[in-house]
Amino acid sequence: MSDSAILSGVTFVYLLSFLLYLIRMVRGKEFWGSAASRVARIGFLLHSAALLLRWKSSYDLGIGHAPLANFYESLSFFAWAVLLLYLIIEWRTRSRSLGAFVIPIAFLLLAFASISPGVNDRIQPLIPALQSNWLTVHVLTCFLGYASFAMAFAVGIMYLLKGRARDVGTEEGTFFRQIPASDALEELLYQGVVLGFVLLSLGIMTGSVWAHYAWGSYWSWDPKETWSLITWIVYAVMLHARSVRGWRGRRMAWMVLVGFASVLFTYLGVNYLDSLHSYF
Amino acid sequence: MARKESGIGDFFSSVRLTIVLLAAIALGALLGTIIPQQEAAEAFSTRLHPALLAVFQAFQLFNVYHSAWFILLLVLLAVNLIACSLDRFPASWRQFRRGAAPDGAERLADLPPERIVATDRPAAEEASRLEALLRKRCGQVQKVETPQGFVLAGGKGAFSRFGVFAVHLGVLLLIAGGLTGAIFGVRGYMEIAEGDTSNTLAFRGGKSAQPLPFSIRCDRFTVEHYEDGAPKIFRSDLTFLEQGKVVRQGALLVNHPIAFGGLRFYQSSYGVLPGGRLALSYVRGNGKMNERETAVGDRFSLPGGEGEVEVIRAENDLMRMGPAVKLSVTSTRGNVQFWVFENIERIKEANPGILEQVPLMNPALFAPYFFSMQKKGERFYTVLQAARDPGVPLVAGGAALLIVGLMITFFFSHRRFRIVLEEEKGKSRIGLAGSSNRDPVGLEKEMNRLLAEIGKAEGRS
Fold first, then answer.
1. Is the confidence at residue B154, as pLDDT, over 70?
2. CB–CB of B29 and A202 under 8 A?
3. Engineered SS bond to A152: which of A41, A192, B113, B455, CB 3.0-4.6 Å?
């Protein structure tokens, strides 16, 4: 069985998990929550197996490299990182309410990888510019950072929904009662941004070191580089506004939406601009 | 605080200015990704209305990242960072030095009841146990006697107050390194054909070429492909010569630059020199092989007048399958056209059955003749990029400082603990207070653990 066939299956496992998390939110019964959580963990294990299998297959083809070398592989790893962070948070906070907001992100990423005709799922050999040890560490740090920002984004959505429910007085409904208290959400949002910011900084730095060896310049104002800087600045502004000017609550939630839009543009939108990063 | 305030100083040290500057830099950077820059701008600029073009040129929008206003924004950010840091450093230093010295005014009455435990023993018996408990966590512990008992104080992670300064110093070094590179850096190109020697460094954008004190010979350029046609290796075998003597030889590959004579050389690009010859061969059945040098437009007759051959196209790399020529053969049977590939054997191996599926690629389409072609005397040239950037050490140092600073800032915090003991009639009540410069959740967790330790030892007595 090929790894991409497993991955198509995992896409549906994540969809199922999302639906179960959603039923838990609507019915307010933890039975659905524990089922959703179990399904998510099974999906994550299958997903991990698919990644390892793909890694092994690339060696069988004689072009061995970590499965982090093209757009398809980056989508898959992004989704995997989202699940990894989510399961850690679920385990640490013992709360399942994030699932209904985070799992769909992983599902959409995988669905895009499996369904979009523009995404080539073949294992490709590394072209000369990609033959570097920096490839793995650069992609690893960037996408763990993206996953962390995705987490903060989901929390931001929850925060805004809860705030809106409070405004219109439906806060006591089953659905909104499942969403954690505002200050817990705020703390989680902040942690997601901080972790993402540190990882993004590392990602930009490892990318610069690599560019220094591959292209002869640590920074070329390539659109992807420039957009990663813009994303970095958005989150830097957010962190300063919080720690020095005391921004809290809804403002931070909105900032985190802007930040994630910038992440998505850095990841996907830039491909419509002329870029040296055309492999991802 | 008796600090002299000045309008200008306040302006430059405000975080509001930082946020405005960062937003402006982000916006400028964004413009540069949607407006074509430098070489790419030429085609675009001809399509613009003249008035708009004048505006774009006035604001250097075709070279945003090197424009005066963008550099000014970076310099202002640097000034702002310095002013902010100078403004805030003394306060952080005081917090750092102050340590955890208790003032003796702490009272249990000020603490919430859930942070207080009671014991049966007098203050004198509890003192050493509590001190050891706090010392394990904080290193140094200070003790102040109070009329009711004593107060113990300890702190940890005080260094985390300096993380933010490391980050800002890192950003300053990055800006300084970037400007240093832009002003004093050199970035040029060398095009060397196989077998040739060059000492000329050329520049993009019309700057005149510059001779180097040494020369480089390209002994060989190799390009290898994977089976699917994607490039696998670009490699230049180079010899560095000083006054005609070989001083160094090496293979230059992508991702593996060579440093020589204060410059770093990178494999940047390559090409094929014009002037290579095409040799077309044909054989009838098991007969004798004929070969002729050919080019597009070449016409000749097959022996015995069986057909007229014309070379109608020649490609260096057709559909990533290598060199090929397209032939048109006219005979009494009509006209057939087909491609003759140099690497037909390899193509057949990689794609079994392709000749049956795509007759256009079959070199034996005009039976009983079989055609083949070969490129002869073809020479590659390699393009090297040569760079010297004195800003790199600053940038590397800045980046390292930035990362370390971020880790210190976000993953550590300066936590202070106070254990307040008040004795009454030979019995003690012990309270715990704590404060932190960030991460209230982490502080809360650690205080709960500490309080549990205070309480646990209690149970054993």
1. yes
2. no
3. A192
Residues linked to residue B331 through DSSP beta bridges, in sequence order: B334
Q: Which of B190, B201, B254, B270 to probe the A interface (max A CBs under 10 A)?
A: B254
Burial of A200 per CB tally in 10 Å (0-12, 13-18, 19+): buried
User: pLDDT confidence of B106, banded at 50, 70, 90?
Assistant: confident
Q: In this complex, is the C-beta atom of A248 within 8 Å of any C-beta atom belonging to chain B?
A: no
Query: Which residues from chain A sit within 8 angstroms of residue B228, using beta carbons?
Result: 124-125
Interface size between A and B, measured as CB pairs under 8 A: 101
Of the listed ranges B53-62, B195-204, B378-387, the least confidently predicted one is B53-62
Instruction: Say how many residues make up chain A.
Output: 280
According to the model, what pLDDT value does residue B449 have?
93
Per cent of chain B over pLDDT 70 is 97
Q: What is the mean pLDDT of chain B?
A: 88
Q: How far apart are CA A201 and CA B400, in angstroms?
A: 10
The pTM (predicted TM-score) of the whole model is 0.85
Q: Do B231 and A237 touch (CB under 8 A)?
A: no
Residue of A128, A234, A237 with shortest CB distance to B234: A128
- State residue B286 phi and psi, 5-degree precision: -100, 20
Which residue would you say has higher pLDDT here, A225 or A279? Answer: A225
- Is the Cβ–Cβ distance between B341 and B321 less than 8 Å? yes
Cα distance between residue B149 and residue B116, in whole Å = 15
pLDDT tens digits for range B200-210: 999 987 788 99
Contact state of B410 with A217 under an 8 Å Cβ cutoff: no
Using alpha carbons only, give the angle B49, B54, B57 rounded to the nearest 5 degrees.
120
A residues 177..206 contacting B (CB < 8 A): 187, 194, 197-198, 201-202, 205
Tokens describing residue A34: 């524990």
- Residue B83 φ/ψ, nearest 5 degrees: -60, -45
What pLDDT does residue A271 have?
A: 76
Select the residue of B22, B255, B264 nearest A132 (Cβ to Cβ).
Answer: B255
Residue ranges in A94-133 assigned as alpha helix (H)? 99-115
Please indicate whether, in this complex, the C-beta atoms of B15 and A245 are within 8 angstroms of each other. Answer: yes
Q: Which residue has the higher pLDDT, B120 or A136?
A: A136
| B33 → closest Cβ in A216, A223, A243 | A223
Does A233 have pLDDT greater than 90?
Answer: yes
Q: Are B187 and A241 an interchain contact pair (Cβ–Cβ within 8 Å)?
A: no
How far apart, in whole angstroms, are the C-alpha atoms of residue B141 and residue B153?
A: 6
Residue A218 sits at the chain B interface (C-beta within 8 Å):
yes
How many angstroms away from the CA of B352 is the closest CA of chain A? 19
Task: Quickly count: other Cβ atoms within 10 Å of residue B367's Cβ.
Answer: 11
Cα dist from B97 to B93, B161, B163, B166, B408, whole Å: 6, 11, 16, 18, 18
* The pLDDT of residue B120 is above 90: no
Give residues with Cβ within 8 angstroms of A39, minimum separation 6: A13, A16, A17, A20
